[in-house]
Design goal:
alpha+beta; single chain; binds flavin-adenine dinucleotide; Vanillyl-alcohol Oxidase, Chain A, domain 3; about 475 residues; globular; 14 helices; Uridine Diphospho-n-acetylenolpyruvylglucosamine Reductase, domain 3; 5-stranded antiparallel beta sheet; 7-stranded antiparallel beta sheet; 2 domains; about 20% strand; about 35% helix
Length: about 475
Amino acid sequence: MITEQIVERLKSIMGSEKRILLEKADLVSYSYDGSFGAYNPEIILQPVSTEEVAGIVKLANDMKIPVYPRGRGTSLSGGPLPVHGGMVLDFSRWTQKLIIDPEDTVAIVSPGVITADIDREAQRHGLLYPPDPSSSHVSTIGGNLAENAGGPRGLKYGVTKDYVLGLEIVTPEGDIIRTGGRTVKNVTGYDLTKLIVGSEGTLGIITEATLQLIPRPQATQTMMVIFDDIIDAGKAISAVLTSGILPSKMEIMDQASIQAVEEFQPIGLPIDVDAIILIELDGHPIAIRDESEQVKQVCLEVGAREAIIARDEESAENLWKARKLVSPAIVRKKPTKISEDATIPRSKIPEMFRRLQEIKAKYEIDLVVFGHAGDGNLHPNIITDKQDKEEMKRVEKAVEEIFTAAIELGGTLSGEHGIGTMKAPFMEMELGEAGLEMMIRMKKAWDPNNIMNPGKIFPETKGQRLVLVHD
Ligand SMILES: Cc1cc2nc3c(=O)[nH]c(=O)nc-3n(C[C@H](O)[C@H](O)[C@H](O)COP(=O)(O)OP(=O)(O)OC[C@H]3O[C@@H](n4cnc5c(N)ncnc54)[C@H](O)[C@@H]3O)c2cc1C
């Protein structure tokens, strides 16, 4: 409970009262993210310095008030939702530091910096910050680090964790610590940097990050490969990746996502098809011209109807625009979108497509599949209406079956969106009782009063089930 005395103490910690929000309208605005469910916080604080964060967290820890870190609220798993009220710490105003050091090839950034801005600045020095979530123009680096965000380029370059050299963190007890550093090599003690990355704001608050940059590839080449059967598209992914060529991106869009994009903003995608794969190659211009022809042949051999190489930068950009439009396009049909990112080993992609088709038919749901197919990170999205209780019951069962299918095929609950609230009930299914218990023990060691993003990652009761709608 945030009392008037606590508000007064927060005012003395924060440099400006303007960055303390208590109006009802503000509380409601911060009750959502990109997932499902809404929970009002009691207060919103917008810190812009490590000292402010440390002061707030010390107070919260003393008073046992829940603290919910938040970037831009684009989480698709409920990460920043204040499920137990308390304080939301909004970092979106903390964008002041974005330093590129071309000699050490690093970037040093504040938590609220927009991810695409880091790559844009790196480009000015001929460098690349590879992680590129499709939300990179709106999401913050703090949110990306907390979720260990991936993106299309993950196929060739890996994900956020692969580019973090060091962090500054405020622990749940309000201490300021530094992990890692500025060197590529660093093996001093436990790797706390990697532990914090992907911990979804449950182990501490990231107040600064040192990121690794790499030389920017000279050129890129995009192509669209068209399939009459999505299962063949799954086979093509494995065929390309075993042909000796590693594309930088391989993204799939099924018929429903193509149709939705063309109805939303016509791009000129073929609609009489079962799926398309968008492929990007990067490297030396002569090498990628040759590789594009090879990739085209491989796809045609496994049953692609056609493979079209983008003739110029504009047509390539147009194709990638289509991929980015999928999310906004599919929600026009019905208002509620449940985005999953169950991920399977590449060899199981055709089998996963088959299982998703069965789940869609069995539960009579609108299921759209797109995503980073090259690394097995599919995004099955259920388009529904949360007011329709009868349909939501079927959706609950479908979600459970999607996770079961992914685990049975040797995959995981989440490739990049995180566990948050949405997948917490399924953690034991993937980790087993002892595996989950080890994680819970780590959380208790870091955060003895359970103030840091409580209600996330771990099921709150034994045997908790996913409930999207209450009777
Ligand atoms: C259209 C769309 C496309 C997307 N595409 C991708 C994609 O391709 N790949 C991908 O991985 N994700 C994707 N996402 C999901 C989302 O954008 C990412 O999870 C992103 O990292 C969230 O960043 P954010 O700034 O919005 O953080 P928020 O959503 O505000 O928070 C996310 C998590 O980070 C924690 N957090 C935020 N800041 C800090 C901090 N400074 N310290 C500690 N914890 C913190 C929060 O508590 C929460 O648990 C997409 C989302 C949308 C809406």
